[in-house]
Structure formats: C-alpha cells, structure tokens
Write a structure and sequence with these properties.
single chain, Rossmann fold, 16 strands, 15% strand
Amino acid sequence: MRIWLPALLVLLALSSAISAATPPLVKTAAGAVRGETVGTLHVFRGIPYAQAPVGLLRWKPPLPVPAWEGTREATRFGPACVQPKLRPGSIYTWELPATSEDCLSLNIWAPAGAHDTPVFFWIHGGALTTGVGSDALYDGGKLARHGLIVVSINYRMGVLGYLAHPELSAESPDNISGNYGLLDQIAALEWVKRNIAAFGGDPSNVTIAGESAGALSVMYLMASPRAHGLFAKAIAESAYMISTPELRSAPFGDFAQEAVGTWLTGKLGAHDLAALRAMDATAITEAAAKAGYLPFGAVDGKVLPRQLIDVFDRGEQARVPILAGFNSGEIRSLRYLLPPPAADAAAYEKQIRARYADMADAFLKRYPSSNMDESMLATTRDALYSWTAERLVAKQTAIGAPSYLYLFDHGYPAADEHALHGFHASELPYVFGTADRTPPDWPKVPATQAEKSLSDAITDYWASFARSGVPHAKGQPDWHPYGTERAYLLLADQPRPETRVLPGMYEFVEHVVCREHARGGIPWNWNVGLALAPLPPEAAQCR
C-alpha cells in the first residue's frame, strides 16, 4: 500500500515524539533503573549508590548496594539523611523532605543522547550537618543543557556521619573511625566511575564541586589518597581550610576526635557503643547537636593523612585544575561566627594590640576601628573564605595545575536592602539557574534580563571549566588563570578580569596561620580578630 509523503512525515513525527517521551532505561551494575524524560533531558532520581549501615550496624563504612531483579523506578528523590531541625527564620531554611538513615542515593540529569559527556558531581553544603542533594536550588537541568551530566548526592552528616570513638576504631581493620560521610562521598565517586558511562558520561572527566561544607568536602577529597583518580577537576565555592581535629591527638588545640566521641556517649546517657547504636537515629542527631557536637573530618592517617594546609604545602593533594572563589559578604548572613564586639573604637584597638602584638599595626590598617562592624565582617571572611580560596589556587598553580580564582561581589535590591550584599551562598542561584527556586526567606533575585545574563555567564564559565578545564563564557571576557599575575574574575553586575584580589590579605592571613601552626596548641578556625588567642612569636619558618 502506498503511503503519501505528508502522511509519512506525520508518522515520523509521531514516532519521534513517542521515542522522546519513552522513559529512559539504563542498566547499572546493581540492576536496571528507569527515569523520566524532561524536555531534552533524561532525569534519574533516588538511585542508591551504596548502602548505609543503620541501627545496630551504624558507624561503619558504606556497603555495596545489593543487586535487584527487574527494573527500579528512579523518578522520585530519595530521603534526606537524618539531620537536626532547621533554625526558623534563617534564609537557608527550607521544607525538609522525609529523612532516613538509609539515605545514600544520587540524582542524575543527562542530555538525551549523551555520549562521553563530562560529569559535574555536586556535593551540597550545610556545615556537614544539614542539606540534601535534591534541594531545588541544586536542580541540575540548566548545567545539563550546557552539555554536562550532573550528579548530586546525599551523604551521612552530623554525629551519624562523623562520630569517632575508641570502640569504633577497635572494630576497624585500619584501627580508625569517623569520616563516614566522607567515605560515602568516595563511594558515590566510585559508583560514578563504574556506572556513569551507561548514562552517557565520561568517567575520566569528572569534576567534583561544592559550596561551603561541600567545598570543604572537595578539599577533603583532594587530600584523601582514597579519592585520587576518581575525579579530574575541582570547583570549591566558599571553602574554608580550617584546622581539623585529629583522631587521637590534639596538636592544634582541638579535642581528639575519639575523646569527643567518648564525651558525647556519656552526654547522651549511653554507657557504651552498643547502647548508642540502640538509640533512635533522629534522637541521637538532635541530642548531639544540642550538646554542641560539631562534625568535621578527622585526621586519621588513612582517609585524611594530615592537616589540609600540610597536604597542600607538601604538594600531596590531587594534581587537578581548580576553580575556587569566595563572596564579598560571606559573613553578612553568618553573623553567629562573629565574636562579641568591643565597647568602642578604643577598646577595639586595645584588644587587637593585645592579641596581634607585632602584627597589630598591619591588622588595624586592614581592619580599622573607624567602622568596627565592617572590619569584623571582613576579618572573619578573610580568615575563613578569602584566604582559603586564594590558597587553593596558589597551591595548585605551584604544582602546575591550571587554577582560576573568582570574587562574587554581586548585589540586588532584596539582598542589599537587608545588608546582605554578596552573602554566603548567594552565587548558587546563578550557577544553577535556579533563582526561582530559592528557600522561602532567601532574598528574592529579581526576574530581570540583567540577572539572567549574569546567571547565563556564570553557568557558562562553570560548565566550560567542567568540560575542558578552562572557564569560558560566550560573549564574556576571558578568565585568566591565577598564574604569576594573581589574576581573578570579579563577578559583580558583569564579569570583569582583575588582578590581586584584596591586596595584602593573603600574605597577612598566611603569616598569622603560619605562626599558629608553628607554635601548635592553637586552631586557626574562628579565633580571629577580637577572638584571637594571643599570637605566638614569629617562628623562623614564617619569616
């Protein structure tokens, strides 16, 4: 029977539409998963990448996912990992999905027809205490439409993700404990290496990326020998290279992590590890947070071999290109990190001179008493975020890895009206193109062409770096590597290349940290400015 050409074209169009609407089916090492087609993308949600030991087996490394028969539906996000209730009124508070100890899942956004496509592996922030990879702020659709496969993950947090304890160490073949959340992240990267090709991804071109605690995790992964070889590039947004506790010793003033675990066990009314494991996961998490437990990666000689600054000073980190930066108003939305203010300018100067000794004049020139509030905001920002960002690109440059630095200094009416210009995490809606999906109390980004253009540029820069290791944006200026000129990209109303961000800041903070590190007994976390322990005398290696 003859088919006329118009009818044939209609049939072909119908066939194409049916094919496009057919849910994508992919076979992973553990079994088949079926996602859904969203426009030009294939989206998979809630795929288990590992099994979290729970209940009486909790506080162990992640286990392999048991294979399943048939096809697993991957159209709903998995539960968030157990975490404390979020503080009401915070701009970072959103409606938390259901939580579970069994939470180790990931989500994938892939262009339809992807083949050997670069992978953008996103690690959410939240002080290693809160957060979820399925947050609408991290929707991977826009980055995927820029030619990437986007993977977002959940990982164990808080006391369930980072508790160290002598009894736990005794159970371990390596005689270590803690770092379970970091081991989850490594397990997710191993899953990507084994499985992402089936989704059209290139397992040899994976960029790990994160913001805040996610960027801290990026540094932990760069420092961990167990993660080396699992990624090719790194993006660190608002990272903080603080001193981190050690498993059994306290060389820099932090309590040893095993000692913290023993203290917390007693604080929670448990006599031993078995009693702790018998407790409800949510109850443990809430009680530990109320008791003041703070999760950090522990230097155990295996997963984390040494302090981050020592790893990067020795050139032992992953030798990968990096894109790193910070925001001008980091602390404006994190004022709880500030010490109590001085009574007046004279008291401010007196305290600074007592704490900074021979470096007081340099401190007061940089952070003057004439505007104490702005000086305190800048002091803590620089000690945590500005210094870390520049240190990362400087150290990667020193080992020959292309490195790119940015400063996000963009404001808009809803943020600036509340003195939140360039606040912590405010770059995220621009990276992901999710300005319409921010938390309820987040200052709303206006739906203007100027804001969209800035977001398009930032997404372009991030996506091209993930593809090739060189950030480039269509119609925008070149982003020069840090190099000897100490170049950076200023992201204000429009991208603008500059050199020498906050001149003198890096040298000043680096010298303070060097003296604290050389002396020992002092952490270089939030003890800065009016909270600084008296600065040790200058050591020979710091001159």
